[in-house]
Amino acid sequence: MKTNYIEIDGRKIGHGNPPYIIAELSANHNGDINRAFDILKMAKECGADAIKIQTYTQDTLTIDCDKDDFKIKGGLWDNRTLYDLYTEAHMPWEWHEPLFKKANELGITIFSSPFDFTAVDLLEELGAPAYKIASFEAIDIPLIEYVAKTGKPMIISTGMADEEEIQEAVDAARNGGCNELVVLHCVSGYPAPAEDYNLATIPDMAQRFDVLTGLSDHTIDNTTAIASVALGACMIEKHVTLDRNGGGPDDSFSLEKPELIQLCRDSKIAWQAMGKVNYERKESEKNNMIFRRSLYVVKDIAKGELFTQVNVRSIRPGYGVKPKYLKEIIGLTSKKDIKAGTPVTEEMIGL
């Protein structure tokens, strides 16, 4: 792997660090900058590491055309033209500076997905600390190369991309000068069914492309995202909203505040639970050692009497020697009187 971690805005991301949680604002501003401000505030309060926006206009993504090629068929946005959808969903460029300023005031990292060169130029002027390449743009090699030239950390989502296309994107990023790269496993369904995610792809992706890996999650709850941590995801991206019934283009498959709190909390718990390979006795276990079984004298034994399976048994508590020594003590002669309830010691069996 090129590096064991990357760093965004002073936060290390990768091996040995808790998962980095990105709250995706996307189109959930619903045309109201104050709503966007409120989502920034919510993300900070929930414990997200970063808020991510999208930088495009309807004219940088498509053209105003109502031919069938430009109409969406099926799903959430059925029969809408691309131009119409992007007009509603885009983040006005004049909002970017106040959003960056607000995020700075709140103490939460903000960066964006640029969709063309002019978007990168705007974000560079604002001092964006990183860039995200959206799944639909993962095949836009010139855009990836242009972002790579900034020298900033880059995150690439891989929804719809096959192995060859992912390799091309990774090569373009690295050859363009990007030294800090995370590749996100993703399913570009809105929402996406959990069974489509095949999370076993995450460790394979890390090995196959020699990259840090994470998850861009479009399922409707947190189960898939939290499970991904156990498979090595160092970064999780989720769409967030103030109200899932708010009527915006992305609201219906986004997390509300209680769910974002849960994601931020439980993903870190999952990471802590993963830990490292460790067969040592844990601190939380040590006080319970006395409740293990051990060998005890359970009937009074007189000096010179034999130890038998009648007067010695494996019982709780654990102050005696381990039960594995039972065969060694059976048939030995007691050197002294022993009362019932006395633990068998090493001295009794000659250890």
TrEMBL record:
SUPFAM superfamilies: AFP III-like domain (SSF51269), Aldolase (SSF51569)
Coiled coil ranges: none
CDD domains: SAF_NeuB_like (cd11615)
Matches recorded under InterPro entries: AFP_Neu5c_C_sf (IPR036732), Aldolase_TIM (IPR013785), PseI-like (IPR051690), PseI/NeuA/B-like_N (IPR013132), Pseudaminic_synth_PseI (IPR020030), SAF (IPR013974), SAF_AFP_Neu5Ac (IPR006190), SAF_PseI/NeuA/NeuB (IPR057736)
Transmembrane segments: none
Domain AFP-like, first and last residues per copy: 294-351
Protein name (Swiss-Prot/TrEMBL): Pseudaminic acid synthase
Organism whose genome encodes this protein: Kangiella marina
